Amino acid sequence: MLITIVTYNPDIKFVRAMIKTIKQKGDQYNILVVDNHSKLELEELKDLTDYFVQLDKNYGLGAAYNYAIKFAKELGEDYMMFLDQDTIILDNFAPNRVLREAKELKDIEPVILSVNIDNALVKKEIPNSNFYIAKGVVNSGMILSVNYALKQPFLNGLFLDRLDFEYTYRAEKLGYLPLVYKERMILHKPGEGSKYYSSLCAKLLIAIMLMLHGNEKDRERYKQYGYYSNFLRYYLMLRNDIYLWLRRRIYPNFWKMIIGDLFLMCEVLGYRKSLKWILRAIKHGLLGDLEEDNKELFF
């Protein structure tokens, strides 16, 4: 199995520890690092990995994934795995075992799997197995059939956010069931940390979220949001959610996420500055010219 880590200005010490931990599992895993044109010197990572590729621009996560899929095919790999650059590898990390058990399931073709149960949207348990059927799984910890991924590439235009939910929703529409392993093998929390909402609009957001799909037990969870130092991450979430929801390329209940995105932009940027970016997100989400928007933002 080929394990791919996509990097962009990573914490080199942390990624180095990731790679060493995986290597301690033996020679059963080859590691590919695809770097999205970092501004850092990554010689330490080059020396540790089996394969290292640095792209000439930051083309985004989807493009890096699609490159890695073709790379895996050239190596003759049947399956591959994605890990984010801030993922903690646990002692029981064994994706080959997960894949082996998945192949033993009856009437289910193992196309998309995950060892990241903490961030999976679980639907139901598969009897007499170690798997749940998932409504969605996130990028880090995802295991993919290479042949399937070649036919169904990631959407480059999304650049970063919602790549995983669009991908698993598309698979479900095609009749493939994403599976998540019950045993936690990695730790990965989206964002650079958590922050508490502080604005008036945030208090309204919490009330709306609790009314729509929460209860008192969820109150503490809804008081916090995933923090990113670059506010463009919040912009991409809103733009991509609008784009995908209008085209029915993501779960129908994502209209709730759009509401949350709007309030989150106000929280992070303030009311006046956020209006400019909200209008821009609506414009490009409606038009669907994501690639052009990405060029203006990132190239």
UniProtKB/TrEMBL annotation:
Pfam families for this protein: Glycos_transf_2
Highest taxon listed in the record's lineage: Archaea
InterPro entries xrefs: Glyco_trans_2-like, Nucleotide-diphossugar_trans
SUPFAM superfamilies: Nucleotide-diphospho-sugar transferases (SSF53448)
GO MF entry, a single one: transferase activity
Residues annotated as domain Glycosyltransferase 2-like: 3-104
Sections of the chain in a coiled coil: none
Keyword field: Transferase
Record flagged with keyword Ligase: no
Name of this protein: Glycosyltransferase
